[in-house]
Amino acid sequence: MRMAKEKVTLMLDTERLRELRALVGARSLSAAVDDAVNAHLFRLRHLSAVDDWLAELERAHGPVPPETLEWAAHIFERWDSAARPPRRARRRPS
Predict the structure, then answer these.
(1) Does residue 8 form part of some domain?
(2) What is the pTM assigned to this prediction?
(3) Domain for residue 79, yes or no?
(4) At CA 37, angle to CA 73 and CA 8, rounded to 5?
(5) For residue 26, how many C-alpha atoms fall within 13 Å in the half-sphere facing its CB?
(6) Within 13 Å of residue 85, how many CA atoms lie on the same side as its CB?
(7) Cys-Cys with 32: which of 22, 24, 72, 73 at CB 3.0–4.6 Å?
(8) Could you tell me the CA-to-CA distances from 2 to 5, 43, 59, 75, 88 in Å, in that order?
(9) What is the mean pLDDT of the chain?
(10) Domain, as residue range, for 68
(11) Closest of 72, 68, 52 to residue 60, by C-alpha
């Protein structure tokens, strides 16, 4: 079953686009961007579900203590930084 497609115009970072083209090779650039959008949507849906769950917990049990929020934020920051690929150093013109 094929999904409907729509043609769009995007403005993308030149260096990232160059790297993506180099990595996908003969594979469709559109398919690679579509895969990235799908992965981002999955993450956004997940975060929305977590927000809904936390709101439900707060309604049932009251507000989360500030120290618990700080602890959770610290844990999340560690997970997020570990999951993110390392940033490449930008080359500065000489």
Answers:
(1) no
(2) 0.64
(3) yes
(4) 140
(5) 0
(6) 3
(7) 24
(8) 9, 23, 42, 40, 37
(9) 87
(10) 39-83
(11) 52
pLDDT digits (tens, 9 = 90+) for 42-72: 999 999 999 999 899 999 999 989 999 899 9
Asked if residue 13 belongs to a domain, the reply is no
Q: Are the C-beta atoms of residues 64 and 58 closer than 8 Å to each other? A: yes
**Which tokens go with 15?**
């260096």
The total number of structural domains that make up the chain: 1
CA distances in angstroms from 50 to 9, 54, 56, 76, listed in the order given:
32, 6, 10, 13
Residue with the two structure tokens 């090779």: 25
* Structure tokens that stand for 51 in this block: 């927000």
Does residue 29 belong to any structural domain of this protein?
no
**Distance from C-alpha of 1 to C-alpha of 51, rounded to nearest angstrom:** 33
